[in-house]
Amino acid sequence: MSTTTNAISRRAALKTTLQTAAGATLVIGIDVPRAKAANEKPLVNPLTSWIKIDSQGRITLSYSKSEMGQGISTSLPMILAEELGADWKDVHVEHAPMDRAFGPQGTGGSGSITTLYTPLRQAGAAARSMLIGAAAQRWNVSPDDCNARGSAVWHGNDKLSFAELVESAAKMPVPDLAIVKLKNPLEFELIGKSLPRTDIPAKTDGSAIFGLDVRVPNMVYAVVARCPVFGGKVKSFDAAEAKAMKGVLEIFEIEPAAEAHSLGGVAVVAETTYIAMQARNKLKIQWNEGPAAAESSETLRKEFRRVVDSSMKVIINEGNADAAMAQAPTDKKVACDYELPFQAHATMEPMNCTVHIENGRAEVWAPHQAPDMVQMVVAKVSGIAPDKIQVHATFMGGGFGRRYQADFPTEATQIAKRVNRPVQLVWSREDDMTHDFYRPASYHRMNGAVDLHGNITAWYHKYTSTPISEWFSPNAAPESSELGLCSQLPYLTKSYKLEYTPAKSYVPRAWWRSVEASVVGFVLESYMDELAHAAGMDPYEFRMRALGEDRLVKDALDKEERPLDTARFKGVLQLCAEKGNWGKPMETGRGRGIACHYAFHSYVANLAEVTVKNGTVKVDRIVSAVDIGVPVNPDGIRAQVESAIVYGLTAALKSEITVHNGRAVQTNFNKFATLSMKETPLIEVHIVQSAKAPTGIGEPGLPPTAPALTNAIFAATGKRIRKLPIQPGDLA
User: Helix axis angle, 72-84 relative to 112-139, nearest 10°?
Assistant: First the structure.
């Protein structure tokens, strides 16, 4: 038997459930706004998370975001458990089921804790209030004289466990989340402590289910042959030799799906993934390569240069940068170009999806950052109503934005609809590398000047790239996905001019870890170092001076965006410099560099120490200081920053995607190199203690990594690195 109350309001949509057959269960759900993805306006679609307490005292806390290694299956339940007053040893966690009642479940933009911190506290506090109310009634005392801790309610020395109270608590009135009393942060017992991650035991003993681990009775396996040229399509194909192979079940063409940016191709279905891949190799396919076949990295670079050499769209024009440049002494001017390539996501687990369509229903197992999106994709392709589609969100071997795309669920559904058996679509590493949605390539022309006192008198930035918005939001201004901190420049300058014009490219692109901040952070912080050198000032002192008096800096283009606090910016710079021994002499061939950035409402400064010998750089140490408000799980924060730094070093030192004849040249890790364990430096992460609302951390550690590295290289060698990744010969 179960009873459920209707939603009281969007903001306070709570449900209580009493299950008498298996013991009483108190269930609390909440509505919260969707996490803000990169460059996306916040939406108010509801998201529901659950607290369940059974009559045996087992507390199950559901997390409604996808666990892709960032640790939210620990940190989100910690927030609930803190306000509930639960003993962590009694807590169990589960992924919230995919149901429209739970609202959007997309995970991106470093937004999980940012958007859920207060709503989950409210949910925990509501459940605590109901438990305390039930205990107070039983004792005939005021609820104000009771408290909850250690999975029990206390009144003096009297104690009732949650298990003893759950049945009566389920009948209590549901508090209004808007006014429910939250804990004083000074009373926190879990938040701010480093707790063991809940996902590690299963990942250690092998019981964790990733997308590639899914096995369903009567399942078959599929791969797709896609045109190697971006945007190319099937012209014709001969599958006779492939069909003759033992274990091959079906071969057929699947159509492109424009909304999902899916290329279509030739699907091969077989008894095993290996057989399917071997059969794919025997297909004889004629491709219509389309216009992208003429594109290469060389033609794109020429296009970049043409754009910045021409008249561009003026985005910001404060003061008179042209006049300031004309008046500046020659030795106080800095003119240079920066260039960054396409980057692949290179998740350790390639794209995959398992779909079973039967009797007008569908069941899906997807390592995806937005299982609710998967539900809608499957509905569109299959014609099945969303409420008849069950999506299981599995663990995933990395996301970084790639698993926010709809192409691989679309392909899996197209195939499952045809074969009428459970189908697991698997991408090979080569599929994954050559049909990614890459981080945009970009080119930046910087002109600026300083005066004799070290003040920035002119900052003129001409910026072109292959914008994400043109791929996903063609009606939006191209620059809307590219500018980042360029429109919220924290440094004082007497004149600032920013221009942006997109460059034409057929290469697919999308959100990559830290998105435009990974590009803008490198350019701004490298250029700040160059200006500091022109001013004859220490780079750290130059930054602190340019940040000026404590102030709030608004986004010039988005007045609703949260202002940047220069006091917090200076705080992480100062902490990073202190912990990184800034100013301490180093021997010849070694150098330190520092950089800072503001992204996802978080403040991060990184310091790099390097040794350059015989034209080769060795990164010895990275020191990072972060201010992200309340640190929920410090160990989780450190792990995220370490991960972002390694990802950033890989992009700076090792990896890039180049294009030839409309194809990605790099097809596997033998050509798209990543940082090895022995190359990974000592990393120290220092967390600013704060009572402010928590902000994102999955991505902000990356943007200042590359400029800290290249600034350190300059300190060691006097050589400026303005094009990434660093190439053999750049340091010779």
Answer: 30
